[in-house]
Amino acid sequence: MYQLQSCGESIQHLMVKLFKGYEGATDKEFVSCICLKKYECNEWGSIDVEKLMSHAKNHYMVMVRDKEWTTPPKENQEILALTAEIKVLKEQYLSGEADNCNTNSEGNKNASRIVAPKNKEPQIKVVK
């Protein structure tokens, strides 16, 4: 918080952003614990930013130490990355940015596309 303030950043909505970030974690138990803290904060206002960050850090460290923290398998991470990339490309396509990226100075679409040469079948010689 002090580093944010020293850089001139506002911390007015830090609690909201912390909850949003913590709720994006991959571990369901951690997220449910954060949701409970969010409920407590909304109902009684009994937690401030420093307590929330301390609680989240401690809970995470305990889960890691006890080997209870679950991360998505590598395949899921790759799927998430590809999904995000497809979303960006789709947005670019729908906004017309994709056409600008694939045109050259003459206006030919896909003129700058690099095409790899086709591999030839290897010739096998039979030696007797």
Summarize the structure.
This protein is mostly helical and 128 residues long.
Structure, explained:
The chain is an all-alpha fold and 128 residues long. Helix content is 59%, strand content 0%. Helix 2 (14-22) runs parallel beside helix 4 (49-65). The longest helix is centred in the middle third of the chain and has 22 residues, at 74-95. It is extended.
Characteristics:
mainly alpha; 6 helices; single chain; 0% strand; 2 domains; 128 residues
Strand proportion, as a percent range, falls in: under 5%
Most strands sheet: none
Uncertain segments: 103-108, 110-116
The 3D shape can be described as extended
Radius of gyration: 26 Å
How many domains would you count in the coordinates?
2
Order of helices and strands: HHHHHH
Helix segment tally: 6
Structural class comes to mainly alpha
Layout of secondary structure:
Blueprint: H1 2-6, H2 14-22, H3 28-44, H4 49-65, H5 74-95, H6 97-101
